Amino acid sequence: MSREALTTCPLCEACCGLRLTVEGGRVTRIRGDREDPMSRGFLCPKGAALAEFQEDPNRLRTPVQRTATGWQPLAWDAALDLAARRLRAVQDDHGRDAVALYRGNPNAHNLGLLLYGAGLVRTLGTRNLYSPTSMDQLPNMLVALRLYGHQVLMPVPDLDRTGYLLMLGANPAVSNGSVMTAPGVMQRLRAIQERGGRIVVVDPRRTETARIADRHLFIRPGRDPLLLAAMLHRIFAQGLERPGRLGAFTDGLDRVRAAVVPFSPQRVAATIGIPAATIEALVEELLAAEAAIVYGRLGTCVQAHGTTTQWLIQLLNLVTGHLDRPGGMLFTSPLIDPLGRLRLAGAGTLGQWTSRVRGLPEFCGELPVAALIDELETPGPGQIRALLTIAGNPVLAMPGGPRLAEALERLDFMVSVDPYINETTRHADLILPPVSPFEREHFDLVFNFLAIRNVAKWSPPVLTPPAGALTDWQILAGLHQRLARSPVERAVAALLRRLGPERLVALGLRVEALGRRAHRDGPLTMRRLQAHPHGLDLGPLESRLPERLRTPNGRIQAAPPDFVAALERLAIEPERPTNPEFALELIGRRDLRSNNSWMHNLPRLMTGAERCTLLVNPDDARRYSLTDGMRARLRSKSGALEVPIRVSDAMMPGVVSLPHGWGHDLEGAALTVAGARPGVNVNGLIDPNWVDPVSGTSVLNGTPVTLEPIDA
Ligand SMILES: Nc1nc2c(c(=O)[nH]1)N[C@H]1C(S)=C(S)[C@@H](COP(=O)(O)OP(=O)(O)OC[C@H]3O[C@@H](n4cnc5c(=O)[nH]c(N)nc54)[C@H](O)[C@@H]3O)O[C@H]1N2
Ligand SMILES: Nc1nc2c(c(=O)[nH]1)N[C@H]1C(S)=C(S)[C@@H](COP(=O)(O)OP(=O)(O)OC[C@H]3O[C@@H](n4cnc5c(=O)[nH]c(N)nc54)[C@H](O)[C@@H]3O)O[C@H]1N2
Ligand code: SF4
Ligand SMILES: [Mo]
């Protein structure tokens, strides 16, 4: 007996609709759901590989405990009791901050983890909270907080109606879009060109996205703020600024005008590697376009001046009149709105406290990952002695990963909520594995908010979990209840546990619907969503300012003093001193068949040519006596790795590229497929202390490196 079932892919921000064929309790086929109003049948190789994740023999099905004789299975109650008892003991003996929590990327894609994470965090009450935010979108969020008054008010590019897209530091052809839920994004980009519009990509590599662009400009890593400030300089110098109706509720544009004075296109051209005339042409195109977008993503955040870059991107949209306009950058308001009645997200904070050892600023209750290694290694009151990881693999994801691995060995206790014994969880005393994505429900709380259209979709579980298995939310609820310190806390935890995600979302929809304009077919309840398993299209985004602003005076703050100060420093010293020993700059790279570190154990994603390779421009290859296919030693101040060389004219001269998420051959990791083609961990070369000075975000791109041939 076979049946068809619908669900949503939880792997990346595209949130594609999936159509599964299930035979005898097994998923035998995965296709894109053509009737999903957003993804319209689109599917990438990772979504299709989820059946292999379901069947992966290395995927844990029961909790396991590390013992002197290896990993031993444990019953769920015993496992949750043990985890809670040990975490509690560390907090009782050494204070709350002695337990750290690291929550990885899949948290944002997992309804249960989103709904049940907050309660656990509150109960732990530790300041040692970490996540990849500080290796990712923190600059977007900080700029949203300062300019618009709330950490999540990140405008989204209205791709389907734009006529001009200037894209920096993003490669949606591979990433499928970020802070921009736009499944099938390449088709949407081609549609811009078919409408007569243009796409310009600024990237140190001629990427898969750049290849379809109308123009690609190489830029040296981390020099984007100079380019963007020069564009603003040109606009103000020519008196071409036109913020339109937003001008009436924007403060600080005069301070911006003054701050960009030193950045003439002529002055920055040589440093960034883009001629002044080209910078001026970009300005003209941006102003001439009826509807245009300046969009920058990961590559603009995890660089030397990530916050400055993101700020200038917002300002360019603002002063050219493309912010909050159809076809430009728009603010969303999904059915369950983090700014709505439930106030699911606080406005946000920066620097309310700082990390114990290095004094790095808290952001929205979290410390930057750049603080984590020192907090583990440095003795004294407040030192981290126990760690809980939830869906994270920091040993591969974080700069200084190999040093982190050593520190994890010295912990009093470590517990991980994760399906694998991998590079990070191998250090745990206890691993708590959740059910698979097909065995749980799906509803997007984060990515509906970042989607280029208003959509909503509820996906019930497709498969019945094995008897006794727990979902992520049940694991978190179990820990929460056991760790609760007061009767009230315990009661709240017990109530949440009884409700479950479906009832919580149903409740959320009802509360949020109060006072909101009803959908043309009546209120959007859980029942309505369940009657539309392909998802509901609720129309294009709309202009939402000034109503969405949450700044104290209700106006856009274009010139936050700390941002202006950082730009002024850059005006004095646009270049950091170079070290001739390390004359190349290292950047990262994503691959369509990888998802950060954790899908390399699926055979169908691991076929074909080696992917963990170093791309080197032909001139650099000659300079370092390297040829295609050779192996070489890639060295930074922090470490050295042996890498296979790929010579490629897609690289900017002086820049080399190595992907992250590899290095699977660590002792004790139980990853049969990944371990056979391990690759190397690029984060061993990246200095964990290099951060964006404004936000504490890790600088992942631009590490100075050098190359040496390896004698055969
Ligand atoms: N297939 C696949 N998809 C993914 C992921 C994955 O691992 N694999 N990861 C997901 C995650 S966690 C995220 S955050 C998103 C990220 O999605 P994107 O934001 O699209 O990020 P990347 O694909 O890493 O592209 C970043 C680009 O920035 C460029 N770059 C590097 N340094 C600089 C610089 O200084 N200036 C400029 N202008 N460009 C620079 C790089 O060459 C690269 O092309 O992708 C998500 N989607
Ligand atoms: N050099 C360099 N480093 C980078 C980046 C880069 O571009 N360059 N990118 C950074 C970015 S943007 C990010 S987001 C981070 C990612 O950093 P992390 O989130 O720490 O790393 P992932 O590889 O995504 O690991 C996800 C973990 O979650 C587990 N997992 C998967 N699904 C589930 C689930 O449903 N439930 C549970 N409980 N566990 C699950 C996996 O087994 C894996 O252990 O990496 C960052 N690191
Ligand atoms: S693009 Fe691929 S990984 Fe991302 S949601 Fe769609 S199918 Fe999943
Ligand atoms: Mo990310």
Automatic annotation (TrEMBL):
SUPFAM superfamilies: ADC-like (SSF50692), Formate dehydrogenase/DMSO reductase, domains 1-3 (SSF53706). Keywords: 4Fe-4S, Iron, Iron-sulfur, Metal-binding, Oxidoreductase. Residues 2-58 form the 4Fe-4S Mo/W bis-MGD-type domain. InterPro entries: Asp_de-COase-like_dom_sf, MoPterin_dinucl-bd_dom, Mopterin_OxRdtase, Mopterin_OxRdtase_4Fe-4S_dom, Prok_molybdopt-oxidoreductase. The keyword Lyase does not apply. PANTHER family: NADPH-FE(3+) OXIDOREDUCTASE SUBUNIT ALPHA (PTHR43105:SF9), RESPIRATORY NITRATE REDUCTASE (PTHR43105). This is Molybdopterin-dependent oxidoreductase.
